[in-house]
Description:
CATH superfamily: Flavodoxin domain
Number of strands: 7
Distance between the termini: 8 Å
Number of helices: 5
CATH class: Alpha Beta
Bound molecules: flavin mononucleotide
Radius of gyration: 15 Å
CATH topology: Rossmann fold
CATH architecture: 3-Layer(aba) Sandwich
Largest sheet: 7 strands, mixed
Structural class: alpha/beta
Number of domains: 1
Amino acid sequence: MKTVILFYSRTSKTALVARTLASEVGADLLEVTDLVDRTGPWNYLKSSVDAVRENKTKIKPENIDLTSYGLIYIGGPTWAAKPAPAIITLIDQCHLQGKDVILFATMGSRGGRQVIERMREKTEARGARMVSSFLLKIGNHSYEEIIEEVKQTVQDRDLPLYGI
Ligand SMILES: Cc1cc2nc3c(=O)[nH]c(=O)nc-3n(C[C@H](O)[C@H](O)[C@H](O)COP(=O)(O)O)c2cc1C
C-alpha cells in the first residue's frame, strides 16, 4: 500500500514541511485548498473564529480517493489552538476506515498539541488509527531551518518505518 501526505497551508510553511516529508519518506503529496479568502487582518480574525467554532469551509479537491493508500499523513497549521477549517473539513470528507494516519501540525508558538489531539479524535472516530504524530514550532524560522527540522523529526520518530 502506498503513502500519501494530505495538507493545507495558508502561507506555505506547512507546504514546505509536507514537501520535505514527501521526499524523505517517499510519499505522494496532495494539497487541499481553502476556497474562502483567508488573507488580510479581518479574515485573520474571522479565520480564528471559524477555527474555534470548527466551522466547515469549502475545499478543493472535494473528493479524495484514498483506496490505494494504507498510510495517510494529514497536516496543517494551528489556528487559535485548533486545526484550520480546511483540515476539519478534509477529515470529515475522507474515508479513513482501516487506515493508519500520522498527524502533524505547524505553529508559531503554542496550541499545536490541542490541534493534534482534536485531529486524533476526528480521524479515530472515522475508523483510522493514529500511529504517530508530530508538531513543528516554526515561529520565524528560515526555510533552511524548517527543512532541517523536518529531516530531524523524520529520523527521531523513525517515520520511514511506517507504511512498508
Ligand atoms: C488565523 C490564524 C490563527 C493562528 N493561531 C495560532 C495559534 O493559536 N498558535 C500558534 O502558535 N500559531 C498560530 N498561528 C500561526 C500559524 O499556525 C503558523 O504560522 C503556521 O505555521 C502557518 O502555517 P502555513 O504557512 O502552512 O499556513 C495562526 C495563524 C492564523 C492565520
